């Protein structure tokens, strides 16, 4: 499995391979938190950065290699926290001196980091977000208004890699 980093130059994004992971462990449940963890031993510290990612081909987890439409399903798992690095070698030795423990999480992990705030969107202009400034959240209204408030918070705090679509909201 390869670790990638998106590099943007003059507005063009290029996927760059950073490192190749020989062994990793997938853990997760449907609709639950999913992650990929790897223990990597290397001669020097590896320059991981927040936002690096791996692409998991789903056929490695299930027997079917293609979807209903013939496509191969895949999912990106992102690095949200820096890996731990442990130095194992003594001075003047050679070999795999550093052990890295790195965990990549599915994009839904980012949603769990978002704190709900008391805000909403103006009815006439959905791009304008209004914050009440209250330290507690209170809400009275219908499902449409609740969805507008949730979308306003998510729009403010999620990155471009997390796309959330709830359908048409009036």
User: What's the total number of strands?
Assistant: 10
Cα-based radius of gyration, to the nearest Å: 21 Å
Mean pLDDT value: 76
Distance between the termini: 43 Å
Which H/E pattern describes the elements? EEEEEEEEHEEH
Helix/sheet category: mainly beta
Q: Roughly what percent helix?
A: 10-25%
Number of domains: 2
Distinct helical segment count = 2
Low-confidence stretches: 166-170
Q: Tell me about the largest β-sheet.
A: 8 strands, antiparallel
Strand content: 25-35%
What's the shape? elongated
Notes on the structure:
This protein is mostly beta strands. It has two domains: 2-112, no CATH class; 114-170, no CATH class. The protein is built from two helices and ten strands; from the N terminus they run E-E-E-E-E-E-E-E-H-E-E-H. Strands 1, 2, 3, 4, 5, 6, 7 and 8 form an eight-stranded antiparallel β-sheet that branches. A hairpin with a 2-residue loop joins strand 1 and strand 2 (12-20). The longest helix is centred in the C-terminal third of the chain and has 15 residues, at 143-157.
């Amino acid at each position: 499995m390869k670790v990638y980093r998106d590099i943007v130059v003059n507005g063009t994004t290029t996927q760059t391979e950073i490192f190749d992971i020989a062994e990793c462990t997938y853990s997760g449940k449907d609709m639950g938190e999913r992650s990929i963890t790897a223990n990597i031993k290397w001669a020097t510290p590896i320059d991981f950065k927040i936002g690096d990612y791996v692409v998991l081909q789903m056929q490695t987890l299930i027997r079917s290699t293609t979807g209903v439409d013939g496509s191969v399903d895949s999912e990106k798992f992102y690095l949200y926290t820096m890996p731990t690095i442990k130095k194992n070698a003594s001075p003047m030795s050679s070999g795999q001196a550093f052990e890295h423990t790195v965990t990549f999480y599915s994009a839904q992990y980012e949603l769990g980091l978002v704190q709900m705030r008391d805000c909403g969107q103006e009815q006439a202009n959905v791009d304008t977000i209004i914050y009440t400034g209250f330290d507690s959240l209170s809400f009275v209204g219908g499902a449409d208004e609740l969805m507008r408030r949730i979308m306003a918070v998510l729009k403010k705090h999620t990155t471009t890699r997390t796309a959330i679509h709830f359908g048409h909201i009036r």
